[in-house]
Amino acid sequence: MQIVSRIRPQLLGLSLVLALGAGPATAQSAKALAPIPAATLALMAVKGTTASAPVLFRAYKKESEIEVWKRATNGRFVFIRSYPICRWSGQLGPKTRSGDRQTPEGFYTVAKGQMNPNSKYYLSFDVGYPNAYDRAHGATGSAVMVHGICSSMGCFAMTDQVAGELFSIARDAFGGGQTAFQFQSFPFRMSAANMARHRTDPNIGFWRQLKEGSDRFEAGGEELAVSVSGGRYVFAPLADSQREAAVQAHRTVEEARIAGLVEDGAAAVRTTYSDGGQHAFWAALIGRGVSVGEISRPEALAYAGQEVVVIAARHRPTSVPVPEAVWAPWIAPGTRFVPHGVAGFVPLYERAVPRFPAPATRYADTWPSILRDTVDGRLSDPGFRGAMRMAEMVVQR
């Protein structure tokens, strides 16, 4: 019985490979049977999930990363770890036609039949482009993959080792009963700061839809129920009313943050690429002479992520200076300055005859009252002896 329990994962993986049409267990299918690394399994255990639990992937083009999320025992998806993308092609923005070298953006579904253990790019799975949204907008193209080898013509190229680990994670989730997993692809991390920063981009209307889906997932912790209506992504509310309330609250806060950043004068930029980008991890390795295999258009990587400022940042005061009538009583109670709200105090705007201060004739007349009292010796609070000495030194000079 113990022997059976030890070989069950291998048997499960072999049956999945056979079900995917890989044929007999060969050297090629052996790659598809490689186990999830022990370190990654340990991360799953720490997060309260297992290799067989449902999985979800999230890709970020600008940051060149793919994240793995797994459903924990409490029903919420939890972040496991991120993997550096070795190469993606095109610009920020959605894929619209075959041959445009664009890596797609949107919400996609990967079924068991989209896994390819016999890929010529080591191992791969098809992300599901074009989806219903893409087709509604007349998009063309096919076979957009997450695969090995650092070469992309619209795919997410991960190098062989990373592609193998992602393949094994998806394979074990299918083996645990998941029929399809969600693949979310974004231009960048959908933070309020990034949305404000890219607010003038022609794709901002589309990205706002992606932002809504991203917010819903992060606040609700559940795989998105996505459909398309009127050429727009539509997200079904969560069944749990409390979680849905948390989603709505999170959305409100994020929209307020974006508006606040724009109002406060955040810069607006356009990010351009010669032809896609690469994670700094791989760039550093390559810079040290480490080979990562074939790289598509390596010369283009020198011009990746060039930012052009469209609207320069402007900085406005973050607060209004507190008048002396307010701050003086805070730091020097008992001085001759009478604070607001004290009996006998009548604001200027309520007096019958307005009073205006006499023109200043000395430099000291423009000082705050507390400093004048200190210099004149009327303030004897020990806390201000140091200030008094400093003021005397200034006057003597």
What secondary-structure arrangement, pairings included, does this model have?
Layout: H1 2-19, H2 27-32, H3 38-46, E1 55-60, E2 65-71, E3 77-84, E4 106-111, E5 115-116, E6 124-126, H4 132-136, E7 145-147, E8 156-157, H5 160-175, E9 180-186, H6 192-197, H7 204-220, E10 226-229, E11 232-235, H8 241-263, E12 268-272, H9 280-287, E13 306-311, H10 324-331, H11 369-376, H12 385-396
Parallel strand pairs: 1-9, 7-8
Antiparallel strand pairs: 1-2, 2-3, 4-9, 5-6, 6-7, 10-11, 12-13
Helix pairs in contact: 1-5, 7-8
Give structural attributes.
397 residues; alpha+beta; L,D-transpeptidase catalytic domain-like; 5-stranded mixed beta sheet; 4-stranded mixed beta sheet; 12 helices; 16% strand
